[in-house]
Design brief:
- Chain A: One of its GO terms (molecular function) is molybdate ion transmembrane transporter activity.
- Chain A: Belongs to the binding-protein-dependent transport system permease family. CysTW subfamily.
- Chain A: This is Molybdenum transport system permease.
- Chain A: It is found in: Cell membrane.
- Chain A: One of its GO terms (cellular component) is plasma membrane.
- The complex is a heterodimer of chains A (288) and B (386).
- By secondary structure, chain A is mainly α.
- Chain A has helices at 2-23, 30-52, 59-63, 66-99, 106-121, 124-135, 142-149, 157-182, 186-193, 198-227, 230-235, 246-256, 258-278.
- Chain A has one domain: Orthogonal Bundle (MetI-like fold), CATH 1.10.3720.
- Helix content of chain A is 77%, strand content 0%.
- The longest helix of chain A has 34 residues, at 66-99.
- Chain A starts with a helix and ends in a 10-residue tail after the last helix.
- With 386 residues, chain B is α+β, with helices and mostly antiparallel strands.
- Chain B folds into 2 domains: 10-234, Rossmann fold; 237-386, RNA polymerase II/Efflux pump adaptor protein, barrel-sandwich hybrid domain (OB fold (Dihydrolipoamide Acetyltransferase, E2P)), CATH 2.40.50.100.
- In chain B, 25% of the residues lie in helices and 33% in strands.
- In chain B, the strands form 5 sheets. A 6-stranded mixed sheet of chain B has the order 7-8-9-3-10-11, with helices on both faces. Chain B has a 5-stranded antiparallel sheet with strand order 2-1-4-5-6, with helices on one face.
- In chain B, strand 5 (70-74) and strand 6 form a beta hairpin.
- The longest helix of chain B is centred in the middle third of the chain and has 17 residues, at 177-193.
- Chain B is elongated and about 80 Å long.
- Classes of the chains: A mainly alpha (288), B alpha+beta (386).
- Chain A binds chain B through residues 1-2, 184, 186-187, 189-197, 200, 204-205, 208-209, 211, and chain B through 52, 55-57, 82-84, 86, 88-90, 92, 96, 98-100, 109-110, 113-114, 157-158, 161.
Chain lengths: 288, 386
């Protein structure tokens, strides 16, 4: 939390410096304006098209069709479940990543960090194929799950959640890692001199100190899980009501019911904007 | 000023050797129950490292830490008690109050960690907050507390566990000058009531002189002087201490007694300094501890800048006194005093002289001017410098 205040101060200082720069007469060469304007237009115009082409009049009826309702419900539930899994396993992973510097070699940490980042750079379809090869009915682990317990994961809602967890986990780990690095470890020293065990220190001191980082990571995670397409369709398929999430539903609807696709897209856009707004001051760990 | 029972059982006895990244800390200290020891030293001297070692936050490479008859650290025997099990209270620099907890919950954190039921922990914490004078701020988060209030809350958080040893890391450094005076006075009172041993780490000589019964001066990882506040301020052994307590310290090449009483020192460059002290005074002040062995001691003259008179012409003979030719090297205006830094013609020794602004107006001094300095022999004391 201290870290955030410092960051806020930095931003205020940066803003003040920026204003001072404006008074000196800008400083952006004219040649940069053209590509900058093209870039922003390129980012914004597709969304403008989406809004312009939206069948505003028929939105309510589109929104309340059983197909859209199913996709929306499935998407929200699976993304929430994936986020919960990410928090449950990602926070400890971030903790190990940061604190392993006390005892592990730098190589161990570099390798661990690279492994965490893999899903960020991996094409999601590859992630889906990999999950299939691990958990498929004849997969590395999946064959035993099937032979011994009769459990088959692919093409179930569980598969949707796992695919989303796979792609979203790095977002949470990075956000929490950044918060942990910024947290003053002397608070933990203080707690230790007060008699708190390591577990109590983690629960009552460390976790509250990095809570803003955890919630920022969870929001990013949720957004990523909600938009997941490639890994999901590969590993879980697209069975309506079971594995057909909103992005898949929107993609499929484009063939048969373009208006429905637009409405689903608008819905996803709205969720993204909510996420963006809720993150405005907490964009930490990633890129900073 | 308490007179701690130095013969009684020491509450804290420590020999701490820490070697980290080329830095070596080697400190021996003893604090009796009810005693306050100040560790005074410049930044980077190893003060905080010493405190962290005593708190158990770092494991010393060698040495021994004992509280009463409990051994907390004995690396040779493989003994190291974790901070949780030491019964040592710490008030950290910047206080480190948990930002997400109220003042009350900060204080209650320790009792709760020790398994005290919530209700009782809160009652005890409230009593301590009231005792340190911020009972009405119990519900406030640390961010809403002033510097002085945070310091008190941190003190209550450490003392609520009734530790046998209390460690304070720069307890007043984070406060502004006005608050510092009040908080220092109150802190002095709480430390007086506290029955255990206190170790206070500071770079502010005033904290050490006011709060402590005994001072050790730590420079570059080793103790360069130890003594009561009076001893340290009267007879500084190093230039660092001399500067801190505002004294001139001139190391002599030789020391001899004078027939009529008193002694004469000869400094590098042939500068003569006479003192009313007998030569034995230079040896007497050196404690026979390891840090101040005879091989490391040099006889030296100590006198206050306010005892130095500045003349623009050579003064005539008077009472027995030192008269030195010098050049003005620098002039600083302090509140009600002008401090003149002079270099003696013989040997180029630095001598500080304090004059009143009125006298300064008459002297009309500028850097580079030739002056005469005089100091009465009775104002010059002998010491054993490191």
């Amino acid at each position: 939390m201290v870290g955030y205040e410092v960051r806020a101060d930095d931003r205020a200082a940066a803003r003040a410096a920026g204003r001072a720069g404006d008074r000196r007469g800008g400083g952006v060469p004219g040649a940069l304006w053209v590509p900058a304007v093209i870039a922003i237009a390129f980012l914004v115009l597709p969304l403008v098209a989406l809004l312009a082409k939206a069948p505003w009049g028929s939105i309510p009826e589109q929104l309340f069709t059983p197909e859209v309702g199913d996709a929306l419900r499935l998407s929200l539930l699976s993304a929430l479940a994936a986020t919960a899994l990410c928090v449950l396993f990602g926070v400890p992973l971030a903790w190990v990543l940061v604190r392993s510097s006390d005892w592990a070699s730098p190589i161990f940490r570099r390798v661990l960090r690279a492994l965490v980042l893999v899903p960020l750079v991996l094409p999601p379809v590859v992630g889906g194929v990999a999950l299939l090869l691990l958990l498929g009915r004849r997969g590395l682990a999946g064959q035993y799950l099937y032979d011994w317990f009769g459990v088959s994961i692919p093409f179930t809602t569980t598969a949707v959640v796992l695919a989303q967890t796979f792609v979203a986990m790095p977002f949470l780990v990075l956000a929490v890692e950044g918060a942990l690095r910024g947290a003053d470890r002397r608070y933990e020293d203080a707690a230790a001199t007060l008699g708190a065990s390591r577990w109590l220190i983690f629960r009552r001191v460390t976790l509250p100190l990095v809570a803003p980082g955890v919630s920022a990571g969870a929001v990013l995670c949720f957004a990523r899980a909600l938009g997941e397409f490639g890994a999901t369709i590969t590993f879980a398929g697209s069975f309506p009501g079971v594995t057909q999430t909103m992005p898949i539903s929107a993609y499929l609807a484009l063939q048969s019911n373009p208006d429905g696709a637009i409405v689903l897209s608008l819905l996803l856009l709205a969720v993204s904007l909510v996420v963006l707004v809720s993150l405005r001051d907490r964009w930490i760990g990633v890129g900073t | 000023m308490r007179a701690p029972d130095r013969a009684g059982q020491a509450a804290l006895e420590a020999l701490v050797l820490v070697e980290r990244d080329g830095f070596r800390l080697d400190v021996r200290l003893t604090v009796p129950s009810g005693g306050v020891l100040a560790v005074l030293g410049p930044n980077g001297a190893g003060k905080t490292t010493l405190l962290r070692a005593l708190a158990g936050l770092i494991v010393p490479n060698a040495g021994r830490v004992r509280v009463g008859d409990r051994i907390l650290d004995d690396p040779a025997a493989g003994i190291h008690l974790e901070p949780q099990a030491r019964g040592i209270g710490v008030v950290f620099q910047d206080y480190l109050l948990f930002p997400h907890l109220s003042a009350l919950d900060n204080v209650a954190f320790g009792p709760r960690a020790h398994g005290v039921p919530a209700r009782e922990a809160r009652e005890r914490s409230q009593a301590w907050l009231t005792r340190v004078g911020i009972g009405d701020r119990a519900g406030a988060r640390p961010a809403a507390l002033s510097g002085g209030q945070s310091q008190r809350a941190a003190l209550a958080r450490a003392l609520v566990l009734e530790p046998s040893v209390l460690l304070l890391d720069e307890p007043l450094a984070a406060l502004d000058a006005a608050t510092r005076m009040d908080v220092r006075a109150d802190l002095s009172g709480y430390l007086r009531e506290f029955g255990g041993a206190t170790v206070l780490v500071t770079h502010d000589p005033l904290d050490a002189l006011i709060l402590a019964d005994e001072i050790i001066v730590l420079e570059a990882g080793v103790v360069t002087q130890r003594g009561t506040p009076q001893e340290v301020s009267r007879a500084p052994r190093t230039d660092y201490v001399a500067r801190l307590v505002g004294q001139n310290l001139l190391r002599a090449a030789s020391l001899r007694g004078l027939a009529g009483g008193g002694s004469a020192l000869t400094l590098a460059g042939g500068l003569e300094v006479s003192s009313a002290d007998e030569p034995s005074a230079a040896g007497m002040l050196a404690p026979g501890s390891a840090e101040s062995g005879p091989g490391q001691s040099t006889p030296a003259a100590v006198f206050s800048p306010s005892a130095v008179f500045v003349h623009s012409a050579r003064p005539g003979a008077g009472s027995p006194r030192n008269v030195w030719a010098a050049r003005v090297a620098g002039i600083e205006q302090h509140a009600a005093i002008v401090r003149i830094r002079c270099l003696t013609e013989l040997g180029g020794h630095t001598v500080l002289a304090d004059v009143t602004p009125a006298a300064m107006g008459e002297l009309r001094l500028r850097p580079g001017d030739q002056v005469w300095l005089s100091v009465k022999a009775v104002e010059v004391h002998l010491t054993a410098a490191a």
